[in-house]
Design goal:
The protein is mainly alpha-helical. The chain contains 14 helices and no strands.
């Protein structure tokens, strides 16, 4: 018996007990970090955005390093990201402004269709005759402002430029984010290695393992899901544009962004596209085309996009995503929303390991532990 215990003990890694003072110090550091993030939220925004961009671009830089130096790979990836951003600003924003203006100016037509056609059909179908949507009151309230809807983006931009501080902040972000992203991309691996070297030696293997699992989970969800979102947004926008829908780009963009939560983007985009097609074309043929487009998009996502871009790695549960984003925004504003998913991925990994430790402890099944010790 003594020999068995000695052998099993020698096989376990050396564990260093953490004193109560060290635990309180760790807790104090965590609380100080949370306070620091909340206090400097507006200043940290460009750094957090740049860190997200660097995290997304680092795997591609690492692959390109096989054929060129790190600096050249960073320059290539950085120029590609900057070019995509410029193209989005120059091509997408004018289209979005035009379609948002069209939507706002035609809201009376959509409200009239809902009250006179769609809602009576729903009432007759499901027996909701006593339920009132209040669309008439909403229409009367917004009717005086229909004519003020034109040039929405121009009006917003005008208000920003009239405020000196807001304009300077916008210019500062425009210059800061690319500069910080470039330096983070160039030194990303060195920064991670320096952080690893600073960890106490007795906790470094465990923290490195947790960090690797968190990165795998976050990468599976973050990088893969963002690519899926972009692909679905493009598919929906192009498909709806081909059938002549006026709000194609706007609906495709919203559906793509909301697809970060499975089926939410599909449901919202499909309902919006069906209403827009019914009001604009007033026939069944275009409604069927909308159904075909979104059905085809879902098939591509399930059979091609998700297996190819995300793979079979475990991502974050949709409920976790919704709660993390809402909680981050409530606690720390925009910065909290940006760091919500990374924090959720780390907590998910920690909870999984805590669950394994709990199931292997005497607290979960004391009788089994006692029997093993006796053997």
């Amino acid at each position: 018996m003594g020999k068995t215990k000695k052998t099993s003990a020698s096989m376990e890694p050396n564990r260093v007990a953490i004193s109560d003072s060290q635990k309180w110090l760790i807790l104090a550091c965590v609380l100080a970090l949370v306070w620091f993030i909340r206090a400097l939220g507006p200043i940290l925004t460009p750094f957090v955005i740049s860190a997200v961009l660097a995290y997304l671009g680092d795997p591609l830089v690492d692959r390109l390093q096989k054929w060129m130096s790190r600096t050249k790979a960073v320059l290539l990836v950085f120029c590609a990201m900057l070019l995509n951003l410029v193209l989005i600003v120059l091509l997408l924003l004018p289209l979005l402004e035009k379609q948002i203006t069209y939507l706002i100016s035609n809201l009376p037509m959509y409200a009239d269709w809902i009250t006179s056609t769609a809602w009576p059909w729903v009432q007759q179908r499901f027996g909701l005759h006593e339920v009132d949507l209040g669309m008439a009151q909403l229409t009367d309230l917004l009717k005086p402002h229909w004519q003020e809807a034109g040039g929405l983006a121009a009006a917003v931009l005008g208000n920003i430029t009239q405020s000196g501080m807001a304009f300077l902040a916008m210019i500062g972000l425009a210059f800061l984010i690319p500069v910080i992203t470039f330096y983070l991309l160039r030194d990303w691996d060195d920064l991670l290695e320096n952080i690893r070297q600073l960890l106490p030696r007795y906790v470094e293997p465990g923290i490195s393992k947790l960090a690797g699992e968190s990165n795998e989970m976050l990468g599976a969800f973050f990088r893969g899901q963002i690519l899926v979102m972009m692909a679905l947004g493009v598919i929906y926008a192009i498909g709806l544009s081909l059938i002549g829908l006026q709000l194609a780009v706007l609906i495709g963009l919203v559906a793509g962004l909301l697809s970060i939560v499975p089926y939410l983007g599909f449901a919202v985009g499909l309902i919006a596209a069906l209403i827009a097609a019914a009001v604009q074309f007033q026939d069944v043929f275009h409604v069927v085309l909308v159904l075909v487009i979104f059905g085809g998009g879902q098939m591509l996502e399930g059979m091609v996009l998700t297996p190819w871009l995300v793979g079979d790695r475990i991502g974050l549960h949709p409920v976790v995503v919704i709660f993390a984003v809402l909680a981050g925004g409530q606690l720390m504003g925009f910065v909290g929303m940006l760091i919500a998913l990374p924090v959720a991925a780390v907590l998910n990994v920690l909870l999984r390991h805590a669950n394994e430790l709990y199931r292997d402890s005497q607290l979960f099944d004391r009788e089994v532990k006692i029997k093993i010790e006796k053997v």
